[in-house]
Amino acid sequence: MLAEQTLILIVEDEPAIIELLNFTLKQANWNPVSVNSAEDAWQFLQRRTPELILLDWMLPQQSGIELLARLRADRRHKALPVIMLTAKTMEEDKVAGLDTGADDYITKPFSPRELTSRINALLRRKLPEHAQTVMKLGALSLDPATRVVSLNGVPLEMGQSEVSLLKFLMAHPEKVFSRSQLLDKVWGDHAAIEERTVDVHVLRLRKALGEAGDMVKTVRGIGYMISLKP
Ligand code: CA
User: Fold this and answer.
1) Which of 40, 53, 135, 160: disulfide with 35, CB 3.0–4.6 Å?
2) What separation in Å is there between the alpha carbon of 114 and the centre of ligand 1?
3) Would you say the C-alpha torsion 35, 75, 95, 6 has a positive or negative sign?
4) What is the pLDDT of residues 23-37, one digit of tens each?
5) How many angstroms is it from 61 CA to the middle of ligand 1?
6) Are 149 and 140 in contact (CB under 8 A)?
7) Which residue ranges form the domains of the chain, and what is each CATH number?
8) 146-183: per-residue pLDDT in tens?
9) How many whole angstroms from 86 Cα to the centroid of ligand 1?
10) pTM of the entire predicted model
């Protein structure tokens, strides 16, 4: 099983907005889960770590901003990408949200398109392998939505594991990853596969890439990277 499902936690108490958010996120290939209160969000975060949180400001009991402060003070969650959702348009509220550590801010009502592009922008900055926008590196391109990899515009044939591996590498060009990091990031923590399986997939990926195969470099004693350098 591949680990690239992108979990987005929605913390919102208005059913109509939850429905709109769920629909929009699924359309964009993300995997939304929603909770109705800050306390439920906190409970959820003890079990699972989402890639991003959409956090409503006005919640029953504890507010979104209080939950955000709690997250930022927590070692495990301080770097979690958070977009605040709010009906507030007051400048001081916006500043308070950003000061507390929100990465971005969306004012209701918002269009699905605006939401998707804000999420993509934040993911590209923080977790680029989860963004749903076409990735390009040299003559190579990869469309996360269709999972089509092209070289000079010509689609290439490759297995799903190779697409996932390439997507992760292309999201972090010029960075070296160990086999165990790649296993964790591409196949997930609980993958019942061995580190040398990564080598097998790298070989298959290079073969599938044809003349671009040497972009996938072996860094001796460390692992693998993708690079445009010869
Ligand atoms: Ca609300």
Assistant:
1) 40
2) 19
3) negative
4) 999 999 899 999 999
5) 11
6) yes
7) 7-130 (3.40.50.2300), 135-226 (1.10.10.10)
8) 999 999 999 999 999 999 999 999 999 999 999 999 98
9) 8
10) 0.83
